[in-house]
Amino acid sequence: MNAIVVYDSxxxxxxxxxxxxxxxxGGAAKVARIAESNAAALGKAELLVVxxxxxxxxxxEAMLSFLSHIPVDSLKGVKVASVxxxxxxxxxxxxxxxxxxxxxxxxxxxGTPVASPEGFLVVGSKGPLVEQEIERASxxxxxxxxx
Length: 147
Description:
This protein has helices spanning 13-25, 61-68, 92-95, 98-108, 133-145; strands at 3-7, 30-33, 47-53, 79-87, 112-113, 118-122.
């Protein structure tokens, strides 16, 4: 499967999740930080997974900028999924999470969702990841690859 995992990471936690997802998707999956990616070329993938930390209830500023450069309707025929890293704290729910906002943009660009937006937990704002989250990310990716 021709898969692309595009991510932004502030403290390295989202990068670990993105790499685990890419490894679980198989050898043809390309994992790249947004600075190394071309938003206009994403429509060539069969599967696109976008990952960002949740910062103030949304993706990072760099990720928001990247998403805004994906041309509308350019993801028609592309299966899409979104993930974020987030705190488990109750107060965080008030502001929301990055994955849902990413999913909305990918759908606006014509992508076909293959999974609900998914969050992976960090212990504190700088991490580390909660135990077993990397394994959970791998299992999640294997699940979407089979769709």
